[in-house]
């Protein structure tokens, strides 16, 4: 480092769970950051909504401001960290920061998944960095591996547990037999789930992350609206028990795949609960942890595991990005921008091939098994396994299909629901992570 190198000035927008930890690390590790970057990284402002709000960190005297727009417009600010979240004012602030010549680090998956291209274009025009490792799976390095380490390989599939709250709830349901509401209540008491848990339990958070993962993995623009989404609020204790009987466990998965389409490979991106075998590496991801499983042509299978949420873990990813963009800044360069050259189409969910697990309560009499098998055959869906358990005059049939189009499988279930011999379809869930 050259003696007296000019300091790089950082503005932090938002001082909540993540922002307060970013401020803490920036302050506590100032000397190490200086050594690693090659110049002092100096915190010059922290934008907050209310000056007198209680905070998890003591912000140095005079740095707090309620004028975020004024802060990002300052001539001396080199680096802006956006940890406010949501669409506005985060988007306008990031665009203003880039236009003003700052490099930007954000953790905002909702914004990136909704309107990433606008931000990437602004970064390209301004010739500045826009980094966002914290936006997917918190502390786990997954975006940089996709963007850089695997840039010479062909990624074919990304399968992830990318929401800690829902993984905690499903893990609780699996380990204790609790129902969804009871497990959600416990997640709220422990501070994993928010008072309004919609974004997590209905899969919106995971779908935003899936869009970001698919865009990077397949060099295409995939937004949240391209991702098929089902949450976990309909998962019952019976589904979880049925999975257990099969040696499987229910997880909320984000699945991004390259699938053959009429004009070359297409991108399929979906978020839904699925049964996976207990022997699958993702089955051992417990509590609120996250993990992302990547398959690529040359590397084979890779797995990334760790804390996907929480103030300090997320701030770790933010700081990692901050060091990188600061180094780039000092070297007068920037990292690779958006890579969307492949421009792949998104495959509609109905055409995506999946497998189903269907548990059906039926009358226990001759011909019932054949009738159920025929319903699958009517939609050209091949059956992989059938298990039957007698229950007096009733029987329960558990059918697992081979891979078929999601539309055909869903039509099969509709037909089963309308059959006289079917008393109730007690569990329908997609199956992943085994042989097709
Ligand atoms: N908490 C996590 O575990 C986690 C993990 C990964 C990514 N993220 C992302 O990080 C971002 C921040 O999340 P968080 O958990 O810290 O949220 P948070 O709600 O704890 O903090 C956001 C803060 O921004 C402040 N704010 C709102 N509007 C503002 C404005 N106009 N100007 C200045 N401050 C304003 C709020 O008062 C609040 O303190 C979000 O994009 C979130 O998705 C969070
Ligand atoms: N609510 C998210 C936080 C990180 O995005 C989760 O539960 O994983
Ligand atoms: Na990450």
TrEMBL record:
InterPro entries attached to this UniProt entry: ACT-like_dom_sf, ACT_dom, Asp/hSer_DH_NAD-bd, HDH, HDH_cat, HDH_CS, NAD(P)-bd_dom_sf
Gene Ontology annotations of biological process type:
methionine biosynthetic process; threonine biosynthetic process
Residue positions of the active site: 209
The residues listed in the UniProt record as binding NADP(+), with positions renumbered to this chain, are 13-20
Where the record annotates domain ACT, the positions are 357-430
In what pathway does it function? Answer: Amino-acid biosynthesis; L-threonine biosynthesis; L-threonine from L-aspartate: step 3/5; Amino-acid biosynthesis; L-methionine biosynthesis via de novo pathway; L-homoserine from L-aspartate: step 3/3
List required co-factors. a metal cation
EC number assigned by the record: 1.1.1.3
Name the keywords, alphabetized.
Answer: Amino-acid biosynthesis, Metal-binding, Methionine biosynthesis, NAD, NADP, Oxidoreductase, Sodium, Threonine biosynthesis
Please tell me whether the keyword Transmembrane is annotated for this protein: no
UniProt-annotated binding residues for L-homoserine: 194
Query: Which reaction is recorded as catalysed by this protein?
Result: L-homoserine + NAD(+) = L-aspartate 4-semialdehyde + NADH + H(+); L-homoserine + NADP(+) = L-aspartate 4-semialdehyde + NADPH + H(+)
Q: Which GO terms describe its molecular function?
A: homoserine dehydrogenase activity; metal ion binding; NADP binding
Explain the purpose of this protein. Catalyzes the conversion of L-aspartate-beta-semialdehyde (L-Asa) to L-homoserine (L-Hse), the third step in the biosynthesis of threonine and methionine from aspartate.
Which source organism does the UniProt entry give?
A: Nocardioides oleivorans
Which N-terminal residues, if any, form the signal peptide?
none
What does the entry list as the binding residues for NADPH? 109
Q: What's this protein's family per the entry? A: Belongs to the homoserine dehydrogenase family.
Task: Name it.
Answer: Homoserine dehydrogenase
């Amino acid at each position: 480092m050259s003696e007296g190198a000019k300091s790089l000035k950082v503005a932090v927008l938002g001082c909540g769970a993540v922002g307060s930890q970013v401020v803490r690390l920036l302050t506590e590790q100032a000397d190490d950051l200086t050594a690693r970057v090659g110049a002092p990284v100096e915190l010059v402002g922290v934008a907050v909504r209310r000056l007198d709000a209680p905070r998890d960190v003591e912000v140095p005297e005079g740095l707090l401001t309620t004028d975020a727009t004024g802060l990002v417009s300052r001539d001396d600010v080199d680096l802006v960290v956006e940890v406010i979240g949501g669409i506005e004012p985060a988007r306008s602030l990031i665009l203003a920061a880039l236009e003003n010549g700052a490099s930007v680090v954000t953790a905002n998956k909702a914004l990136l998944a909704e309107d990433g291209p606008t931000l990437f274009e602004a970064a390209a025009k301004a010739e500045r960095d826009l980094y966002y490792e914290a936006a997917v799976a918190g502390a786990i390095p997954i975006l940089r591996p996709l963007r850089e380490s695997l840039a010479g390989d062909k990624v074919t599939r990304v399968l992830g547990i990318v929401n800690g709250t829902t993984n905690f709830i499903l893990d609780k349901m699996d380990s204790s037999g609790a129902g969804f509401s009871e497990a959600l209540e416990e997640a709220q008491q422990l501070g994993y789930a928010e008072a309004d848990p919609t974004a997590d339990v209905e899969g919106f958070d995971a779908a935003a992350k899936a869009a970001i993962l698919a865009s990077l993995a397949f060099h295409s623009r995939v937004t949240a609206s391209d991702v098929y989404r089902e949450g976990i609020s309909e998962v019952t204790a019976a589904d979880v028990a049925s999975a257990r009987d099969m040696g499987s466990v229910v997880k909320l998965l984000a699945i991004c795949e390259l699938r053959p389409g009429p004009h070359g490979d297409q991108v399929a991106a979906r978020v839904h609960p699925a049964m996976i075998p207990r022997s699958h590496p993702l089955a051992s991801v417990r509590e609120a942890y996250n993990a992302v499983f990547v398959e690529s042509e040359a590397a084979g299978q890779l797995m990334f595991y760790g804390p996907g949420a929480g103030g300090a873990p997320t701030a770790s990813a933010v700081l990692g990005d901050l060091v990188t963009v600061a180094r780039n800044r000092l070297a007068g360069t920037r990292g690779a921008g958006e890579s969307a050259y492949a421009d792949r189409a998104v495959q509609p969910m109905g055409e995506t091939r999946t497998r189903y697990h269907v548990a059906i309560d039926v009358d226990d009499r001759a011909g019932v098994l054949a009738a159920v098998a025929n319903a699958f055959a009517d939609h050209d869906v091949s059956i992989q396994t059938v298990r039957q358990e007698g229950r007096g005059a009733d029987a329960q049939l558990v059918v697992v299909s081979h891979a078929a189009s999601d539309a055909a499988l869903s039509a099969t279930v509709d037909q089963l629901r309308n059959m006289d011999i079917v008393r109730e379809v007690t569990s329908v869930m997609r199956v992943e992570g085994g042989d097709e």
